[in-house]
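Need a sequence for this fold. Nothing fancy.
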């Protein structure tokens, strides 16, 4: 009985760890484009600071 309980606990821990990894991967895929877009926006803002408005 104890061995079966240990196997069950290991199985549950594996499923939980797999779900956590999947959630982390999903979050990374969602955040990566946003982070890159923020980097691009920052680069554009820096470039525009050096320019003057000539009308």
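Here you go.
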């Amino acid at each position: 009985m104890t061995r079966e309980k240990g196997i069950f606990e290991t199985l549950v821990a594996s499923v939980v760890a797999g779900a956590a990894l999947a959630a982390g991967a999903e979050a990374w895929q969602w955040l990566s484009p946003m982070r890159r877009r923020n980097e691009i926006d920052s680069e554009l803002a820096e470039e525009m600071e050096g320019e003057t408005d000539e009308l």
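For context: The first helix runs from residue 2 to 50.
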